[in-house]
Design a protein that fits this description.
With about 350 residues, this protein is of the alpha/beta class. The chain has helices at about 25-30, 90-95, 120-135, 145-160, 175-190, 195-205, 220-230, 235-250, 275-285, 300-305, 305-315; strands at about 45-55, 60-65, 75-80, 100-105, 140-145, 165-170, 265-270, 290-295. The chain has a domain at about 45-180 and about 250-315: Rossmann fold. The protein contains eleven helices and eight strands.
Length: about 350
């Protein structure tokens, strides 16, 4: 029987295959290299390592793609709530030659132990610190996409000594209204057993209306989202429900100091879940942060424009210019100098 996963706070296209096979039709269907992206890069690094760890009594796993001749600090990639440590393999072609890459299934996500909702975002942020200490990494370039930003920002606020640069994508400091409205409706649909209708609702939630503007791979990504939504395991469903409870119970933001490090926030220009204005609000809480829109993309910007998003992240983390890129709007500096009230 088809199974369905209610997910909020981020998404990556991941097929119902064994984890080592985490490459999808979306990855295979990406465009060839385009003007404006970095040129050819050296071959990928020589060693991939997985480490099983335990924090607070919960087992979790991280994946390390080593680079013996890095151009910058290790890049820690924290993805959305349904992403796992394999979700960034499609970006490794462009990022792994630059530095060591670190991905992780934090407690409560991916293949790691189930985490009850009473454990909040602080716990997850502290788990990130625990991981870095265990694997001997003292400083990282931090990327957070959607829910990964929620954990990443809290980690940077609590443990600024570990952070060299910050890049956030498809992110916000408040729960999107679409999310708050969709949860009860989708729950009722699932209770009726109408999996297809619930899947349709979630595709509409994560993806922009086709009439809003051109989005790369919109139809292909929508089909694959629909397929994934109806083929989830009971473990994934259980974790996703707990994730939603965690966000609603504990919130996604605290107005704590943010380290003064080079920072960039980018959003798909047609993102209707975490809108461009929400991205600007997030950037305004970060000292001197830059903000830009990636053209022809929505909330799934790192899937729809995989090479461009990898190029943007890689450029920023190696101190190369990010202005005047053909796939982005002009860079803004929306810093307000104001810390907003807690959301």
């Amino acid at each position: 029987m088809a199974r369905f996963l209610v997910i909020m706070g981020g998404f990556s296209v991941v097929p119902p295959f064994p984890e080592p096979l985490m490459r999808t039709a979306v990855i295979a269907a990406q465009d060839s290299p385009r003007a404006g992206c970095s040129g050819p890069l050296p071959p990928a690094p020589e060693q991939v390592e997985e480490r099983g760890l335990v924090f607070g009594g919960f087992a979790y796993t991280c994946r390390i793609v080593h680079q013996s001749a890095p151009r910058t600090a290790p890049l820690l990639l924290l993805g959305g709530s349904s992403q796992n440590r394999y979700s960034w393999q499609g970006h490794e072609k462009w990022l792994a030659p630059l530095c060591t890459l670190i991905t992780v299934d934090l407690p409560g996500y991916g293949s790691s132990d189930f985490l009850p909702a009473r454990y909040d975002i602080d716990f997850l942020a502290d788990a990130v610190r625990h991981m870095l200490a265990e694997i001997g990494v003292r400083e990282v370039n931090l990327f957070g996409g959607c829910f990964g930003e929620v954990v990443g920002l809290r980690f940077a606020q609590h443990h600024p000594e570990f952070v060299r640069r910050v890049v956030f994508a498809g992110a916000a400091i408040r729960l999107p209204g679409l999310y708050s409205e969709a949860v009860p409706q989708l729950s009722q649909t699932l209770a009726r057993g109408d999996i297809e209708q619930a899947a349709d609702g979630l595709v509409r939630l994560f993806m922009s209306n086709p009439e809003a503007g051109k989005v790369r791979r919109h139809a292909a990504v929508a089909r694959l989202l629909q397929q994934q939504f109806v083929n989830q395991t009971p473990d994934e469903i259980r974790k996703a429900v707990e994730h939603n409870t965690r966000l609603v119970t504990h919130g996604c933001y605290r107005p704590l100091p943010v380290p003064t490090v080079p920072s960039l926030v980018f959003t798909g220009e047609y993102d209707t879940l975490c809108t461009p204005q929400m991205g600007r609000e997030l950037a305004a809480t970060m000292p001197g942060a830059l903000f830009t829109l990636v053209k022809e993309a929505d909330h799934l910007v790192t899937v729809e424009r995989r090479q461009e998003s990898a190029d943007l992240i890689g450029r920023f983390c190696t101190d190369r210019p990010v202005d005047d890129l053909p796939y982005c709007t002009p860079v803004e500096v929306p810093c307000s100098g104001r810390v907003p009230a807690q959301v």
